[in-house]
Specification:
Layout (H helix, E strand, L loop, with lengths): L12 E4 L6 H9 L4 E4 L4 H17 L1 H15 L3 H14 L4 H13 L3 H14 L4 H13 L3 H14 L4 H14 L2 H11 L6 H14 L3 H14 L4 H13 L3 H14 L4 H13 L3 H14 L4 H10 L5
Parallel strand pairs: 1-2
Helix pairs in contact: 3-4, 3-5, 4-5, 5-6, 6-7, 7-8, 8-9, 9-10, 11-12, 12-13, 13-14, 14-15, 15-16, 16-17
């Protein structure tokens, strides 16, 4: 809703039961521009006082927010001089508001004005030392400039402020892998996935991340954990097979797919994947047999049909 022009002005008041508002909750709320926080137990007077406080703060921000909205509109049509004038106006009217500097930085980036964007983000952190988004955005700009160590330090600072941002933890994990810190990368990744519904889902999501960054070996270990926790989940077997094949462990992939077929005897996709692994390991006759089985189960399985033609010499 905050990204919507029509709905961005809607105020949000977050209420929590006693003892359920941790610092990470507060940081997450701030990142999503929640207007106010209340912790139960509370009374009607407290609610009304908070609403009045929000109304006053929003009234104080009305003019700068109009300027920011106008700046965004000018940026969209390429009228950068007019956009910058509106940003300057917003900054002069409310220099103590981190939102003004944060949004200015975002718009400067859209205009291709990297140095001004960095200056705006730095100002946001001066106004509010706990502005995680500003540290994050500044980190991204420095990373593009090849200043990896500076970028990583700022990324870590953002993560310390607001540890539940999933994308941020993914970036930290990737950076740690590039540094060779595999254990720390795994810890950061599991922080990002702390809201997954189960240990199996968490390991599977971690495995997908490792596949996406080219670490099939680490993906293999995570999918093994996922299968141990949920041995009936055929999808995990399929994805583990991919991790094996990317490492050219074709015999292990074949064995894995055969285990999957014990659980799902009539799954054409597993037979297809088994055929791929068999073909890659040089077992062409067995691969064709697996494809035939897939096509018996699903006669309209185009990928299996095409691979059958290729293995039989009917295609290149």
């Amino acid at each position: 809703m905050r990204e919507s022009t029509l709905l961005s002005s809607v105020a949000f008041l977050l209420m929590s039961r006693k003892g359920q508002m941790e610092s990470a909750d507060v940081a997450e709320a701030n990142e999503n521009e929640v207007d106010g926080l209340l912790i139960k137990p509370l009374n009607q007077q407290e609610i009304e006082a908070k609403i009045k406080e929000i109304a006053k703060r929003r009234a104080d921000m009305l003019e700068p927010n109009i300027s920011l909205a106008r700046a965004a509109g000018f940026t969209d049509i390429g009228a950068f001089d007019e956009a910058e004038a509106e940003l300057t106006n917003a900054q002069q009217k409310k220099p103590e508001a981190p939102r003004v500097w944060l949004k200015s930085g975002d718009l400067y980036q859209e205009m291709g004005k990297g140095e001004k964007a960095k200056t705006a983000y730095k100002q946001a952190t001066k106004v509010d030392d706990d502005c995680a988004k500003a540290y994050d955005s500044l980190s991204t700009l420095l990373e593009k400039e090849g200043k990896k160590e500076e970028a990583f330090a700022l990324l870590q600072r953002a993560s310390q402020i607001s540890p539940r941002n999933r994308d941020r933890q993914f970036r930290i994990s990737k950076a740690l892998l590039e540094k060779g810190n595999e254990d720390e990368a795994r810890i950061a990744l599991h922080k990002a996935l702390s809201n997954e519904t189960s240990d199996a889902a968490r390991s599977a999501a971690a495995a997908e991340f490792f596949l996406s960054v080219g670490r099939a070996d680490m993906a293999e270990a995570e999918y093994a954990f996922a299968i141990e926790a949920d041995p009936e989940n055929v999808h995990y077997f399929n994805r583990l097979g991919i991790a094996f094949r990317r490492q050219k462990k074709f015999k292990e992939a074949v064995e894995n797919y055969r285990k999957a077929l014990v659980i799902a005897k009539n799954d054409p996709v597993i037979y297809f994947n088994l055929a791929l692994a068999l073909a890659e390991s040089g077992e062409m006759q067995q691969a064709v047999g697996s494809l035939r089985r897939a096509l018996v189960i699903d006669p309209h399985f185009k990928e299996a049909e095409n691979l059958m033609k290729k293995l039989s010499g009917g295609g290149k």
